[in-house]
Design goal:
Layout: E1 5-11, H1 17-31, E2 38-45, H2 57-65, H3 81-84, E3 87-90, H4 93-102, E4 110-113, H5 133-153
Parallel strand pairs: 1-2, 1-3, 3-4
Length: 157
């Protein structure tokens, strides 16, 4: 039996970048008939600013424009996530620092920047919250490339 992976995408508030990454990755997994290789695909934030909220309407609109369904509610990362997920992939250095600071010793999660899987080597997925729609569109392109790069890294493509 092949390995089933659990992937968690993380940004600050879990309303812009990480729910977009979750949606794009889950959609790509489904489109490529790889669902049996994943136990769980989720997203969370390092802060609890938006717990329970739907993604930012601009993030959802960008995904919908590309026929990618979005279905998530914001939540905060928990210490249990570090044992539950194989990969915790964050959007920038601040998230990475926060995650490494709270990661319990001996936990299984490989914590890294999601952008490390971008074949264009654009490692940082910048927060588009205070900008216009072009920032969300740029993020969409980044997370799409990084999603494919992750699937290649896992040996699934």
């Amino acid at each position: 039996m092949s390995q089933e992976y659990s992937i968690l995408f993380v940004c600050l508030g879990n309303i812009c970048r990480s729910p977009m990454a979750e949606a794009v990755f889950a959609h790509m997994v489904k489109q490529k008939n790889l669902a049996s290789s994943f136990q769980l695909i989720d997203s969370a934030g390092t802060a609890a600013y938006h717990v329970g909220e739907k993604p930012d309407p601009r993030s959802s609109a960008t995904c919908k424009k590309h026929d990618v369904p979005v279905n998530s509610r914001a939540r905060k990362v928990t210490k249990g996530d570090f044992s539950k997920f194989d990969y915790i992939l964050c959007m920038d250095e601040s998230n990475l620092s926060d995650l490494l600071h709270i990661k319990p010793a001996g936990s299984k999660a490989d914590v890294k920047l999601f952008g490390e899987f971008d074949p264009k080597a654009e490692k940082i997925i910048r927060d588009p919250y205070y900008g216009g729609p072009e920032g969300f569109e740029h993020n969409f392109k980044q997370v799409t490339r990084a999603s494919e790069g992750l699937l290649k890294h896992l040996g699934l493509l």
